[in-house]
Design brief:
The protein is α+β, with helices and mostly antiparallel strands. It has 2 domains: 1-77 and 127-169 and 220-303 and 450-514, FAD/NAD(P)-binding domain, CATH 3.50.50; 175-219 and 306-377 and 409-442, 2-Layer Sandwich (Cholesterol Oxidase, domain 2), CATH 3.30.410. Helix content is 20%, strand content 21%. α1 runs parallel beside α5 (222-231). The longest helix has 21 residues, at 410-430. The protein is globular, with a radius of gyration of 22 Å. The two termini are 18 Å apart. The structure holds flavin-adenine dinucleotide.
Length: 522
């Protein structure tokens, strides 16, 4: 079956699949792709709670040139209570806004439970519900983790990251010709590189994007991760608007899932040998909790990257011709530059052009000369920072309601202070600041939630899954996405999440020997 939504009148759910994948973001899509490459004979069904919003399924909304259609796709991704259709479609809007609960187009905020008394909470905790997940709305920055961001017990991490780059179509060259990019990097390098190791110096940001011969940018979403290999696999099906409500187990062995057709309201049981939950770092533990799979680390070690932003007008830059690709890119003039994480300065920086800048700018300015600096800090990870779930209350989908427990430690506050000093130094090297001082976004604004189903080397109560993503003590159940990352990263995590999904998909492929006659299925 091709990767298309099952049409309304045909929504007959399969009764059996070798593998059920929950969630169609890049982590779920990576499983579908690797299994299609390694085990094309296996039946794989992917259930996605949200609707299909783009063509091919999972494509980035920025690739939709018509503004009205793009806005409609974003609103359809925003869960049960979407924003008004007149809301901005530009993910850069609000880049430097000082709001208590920051909301990006294509995402929706956690409505309740985002803060407990006396705690910082995650006021900007957000999700996307659509085919392609958040990666239909993302910025596509795909740096590799470095120093203590790396997962020490994974000997093949670099090879997995290379696979992740292949699946996401990552390149550092797509914006190489941006006229101001070299100058931005030269200034940043002069200010920041002196003490840095050669592989941690200022560099072009690796991005999940490709440039067509006509000069337009095509941003990678899950469609690119699926690729033609998955789309043409007759044994793969993607079923949208289908909420998996329970993972079924018997004696410590996965047996399938219960899934609700959100169009018809009907429930179906699909038996399966393997279930992969790639439902984001908040909803993956939610589904395990709803299924009475509750290891002690479930939902704990939750970490988001405290984020600081600053806007700067580049000084003394020559006027450059308008780029031919401005309407589809945020970065055509000054590129995207990367200030890598180091253990000494445990934050990660990205510097990019603010296209439709909401920052009031006095007077004329050279196109592309307004750049936004975003510094992400590594969180001081605590087991007490967690997403907990209610046995009584439910969310808008009828799933166990979330309760976020989250606080910044003294170490976090010191790191934020150091990051502020660093971003001011970078800003001064580039030009004239447009903000009086850098702005610290509300916790959750990074959209980089991690740790809630973290992997570990051994089953010692501090992790949920093994290094392949297999949930301890449950045969056939795997978790995937940023939630499995066990380290405190400051770099954008999707590349790492996809790389770890590759390891899991390979493990499942190696176990997917054909069913024996005793393993009968309907
Ligand atoms: C504006 C924006 C900019 C970003 N920029 C970057 C960036 O530059 N670099 C970077 O690395 N990251 C970035 N991110 C974050 C990035 O998009 C996520 O890290 C990535 O999409 C996570 O992939 P995932 O597959 O784990 O989860 P998601 O993409 O969130 O997908 C999870 C899917 O699971 C579905 N689901 C949940 N529960 C169920 C259920 N019970 N049944 C069925 N389906 C379910 C959801 O509907 C969703 O579609 C950005 C995000 C946004 C919104």
């Amino acid at each position: 079956m091709a990767v298309t939504q099952i049409a309304n009148h045909e929504r007959e759910y399969p009764s059996y699949a070798d593998v059920v994948i929950v969630g169609s973001g890049p982590a779920g899509a990576a499983y579908a792709r690797i299994l299609s490459e390694l085990r094309p004979e296996a039946s794989v069904v992917l259930f996605e709670a949200g609707p299909t919003i783009s063509d091919p399924p999972g494509a980035h909304v920025k690739n939709i040139s018509d503004v009205q259609r793009r806005a409609a796709a974003q609103r359809k991704s925003e869960g049960p209570t979407p924003s008004l259709s007149s809301s901005s479609t530009d993910t850069m809007d609000g880049y430097a806004a000082d709001e208590a609960r920051l909301l990006r187009p294509g995402t929706f905020l956690l409505r309740n439970g985002w803060q407990q008394p006396g705690e910082d909470g995650l006021p900007a905790a957000a999700m996307s519900s659509n085919v392609g997940g958040m990666a239909a709305h993302w910025t596509g920055a795909c740096p590799r983790p470095g120093a203590s961001e790396r997962i020490g017990f994974l000997g093949n991490l670099d090879e997995l990251l290379s696979e992740g780059e292949r699946l996401l179509s990552v390149t550092a060259d797509a914006l190489a010709e941006a006229p101001l990019a070299d100058e931005v990097r030269r200034r940043l390098s002069d200010a920041l590189d002196t003490q840095r190791a050669s592989n941690r110096k200022v560099a072009p940001m690796p991005l999940a994007v490709r440039r067509t011969e006509e000069g337009t940018f095509i941003w990678s979403g899950s469609d690119v991760v699926f690729g033609e290999t998955t789309r043409s696999n007759p044994n793969f099906a993607l079923v949208d608007e289908s909420l998996v409500t329970q993972i079924l187990t018997d004696g410590g062995q996965v047996t399938g899932v219960k899934v609700r057709d959100l169009r018809a309201g009907t429930s179906h049981v699909v038996t399966a040998r393997f279930v992969i939950v790639a439902a984001d770092a908040l909803r993956t533990p939610q589904l395990l909790f709803a299924s009475a799979i509750r290891p002690s680390a479930l939902g704990r070690y939750l970490n988001d990257q405290p984020q600081i932003v600053y806007a700067v007008q580049l000084r003394d830059v020559p006027a450059v011709p308008e780029s031919s690709s401005v309407e589809s890119a945020i970065t055509a003039q000054s590129g995207v530059s990367w200030v890598p994480f180091t253990d000494e300065e445990p934050f990660h920086g990205q510097v990019m052009q603010l296209d439709a800048s909401p920052v009031p700018i006095e007077g004329e300015h050279v196109p592309g000369s307004i750049v936004g600096l975003g510094w992400f800090c590594a969180k001081d990870i605590q087991p007490t920072d967690r997403v907990a779930f209610s046995d009584e209350d439910v969310d808008d989908y009828g799933m166990p309601a979330m309760r976020i427990h989250y606080s910044l430690t003294e170490k976090d506050k010191r790191n934020l202070q150091a990051a502020r000093a660093s971003i001011v130094a970078a800003g001064a090297a580039l030009g004239e600041p447009l903000n009086e001082a850098p702005l610290t976004f509300p916790p959750g604004a990074s959209l980089h939630y991690q740790g809630t189903v973290r992997m570990g080397e051994r089953n010692d109560g501090t992790s949920v899954c093994d290094p392949t993503g297999r949930v301890w003590d449950v045969q056939g159940l795997y978790v995937a996405g940023n939630g499995v990352i066990p380290t405190a990263t400051a770099c954008n995590p999707t590349l790492t999440g996809v790389a770890l999904a590759v390891a899991g998909a390979r493990a499942v492929a190696s176990l997917l020997v054909p069913a024996t006659s005793t393993q009968s299925h309907p």
